[in-house]
C-alpha cells in the first residue's frame, strides 16, 4: 500500500469513529436524562415526548451537520488525490492534519470553545484547499 493510501484509509476509519462518537454522545444524553423528542422513543422509555432536544443533543447535531459539510468533501478529494498520484509525502501530513482538525472542531463545538472551534475548522478547510491544488498540479 502506498503512503497516500495508508493515510487515507487511516483517516477514513478515524473519521468514522469520530462521527459514531457524536451519535453515541447524543444517545448518552437522551438516555441519561430520559428525554426524547421522538414520540416512539419517549414511549419506549415510559416518557412523554419532549418539546425540544436537550441542549447537548442540539449542539452535537450541529457538529454532526458541520461534519456532513466537510468530511464527504475530504473523502472525495482523497480518492481523487490518490488516483491522480498527487504527492504521497504531503498526504502523510494533509490527511492526518485534516482528521485531527475535525476531532478538535467537534470537541471545541461540544464545549462551546471559541475561537479554537473556528481555528480547527479553518485548518481542516486549508487542508482541503491544499489537496485540491495538489490534484490540479498532478493533472497538469
Features:
mainly alpha; 81% helix; Four Helix Bundle (Hemerythrin (Met), subunit A)
Radius of gyration: 18 Å
Distance between termini? 25 Å
Mean pLDDT: 96
Helix content: over 70%
In N-to-C order, the SSE pattern is HHHHH
Which CATH top level class fits?
Mainly Alpha
Number of contiguous helices: 5
Q: CATH homologous superfamily?
A: Membrane associated eicosanoid/glutathione metabolism-like domain
Summarize the biggest pleated sheet.
Answer: none
Number of domains: 1
Number of beta-strand segments: 0
Uncertain segments are none
Shape: elongated
CATH topology group: Four Helix Bundle (Hemerythrin (Met), subunit A)
* Structural class by helix and strand composition: mainly alpha
Tell me the CATH architecture: Up-down Bundle
Write up this protein.
It contains 5 helices and no strands. With 140 residues, the protein is mainly alpha-helical. The chain has one domain: Four Helix Bundle (Hemerythrin (Met), subunit A), CATH 1.20.120. Helix 1 runs parallel beside helix 4, helix 3 packs antiparallel against helix 4 and helix 3 runs parallel beside helix 5. The protein is elongated and about 60 Å long. The chain starts with a helix and ends with a helix.
Quick overview of this protein structure:
By secondary structure, the chain is mainly alpha-helical. Helix content is 81%, strand content 0%.
Amino acid at each position: 500500500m502506498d503512503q497516500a493510501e495508508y493515510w487515507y484509509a487511516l483517516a477514513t476509519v478515524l473519521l468514522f469513529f469520530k462521527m459514531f462518537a457524536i451519535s453515541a454522545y447524543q444517545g448518552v444524553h437522551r438516555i441519561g436524562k430520559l428525554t426524547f423528542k421522538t414520540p416512539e422513543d419517549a414511549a419506549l422509555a415510559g416518557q412523554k415526548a419532549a418539546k425540544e432536544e436537550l441542549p447537548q443533543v442540539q449542539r452535537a447535531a450541529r457538529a454532526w451537520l458541520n461534519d456532513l459539510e466537510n468530511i464527504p468533501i475530504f473523502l472525495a478529494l482523497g480518492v481523487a488525490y490518490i488516483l491522480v498520484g498527487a504527492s504521497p509525502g504531503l498526504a502523510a501530513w494533509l490527511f492526518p492534519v485534516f482528521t485531527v482538525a475535525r476531532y478538535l472542531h467537534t470537541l471545541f463545538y461540544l464545549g462551546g470553545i471559541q475561537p479554537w472551534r473556528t481555528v480547527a475548522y479553518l485548518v481542516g478547510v486549508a487542508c482541503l484547499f491544499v489537496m485540491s491544488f495538489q490534484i490540479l498540479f498532478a493533472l497538469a
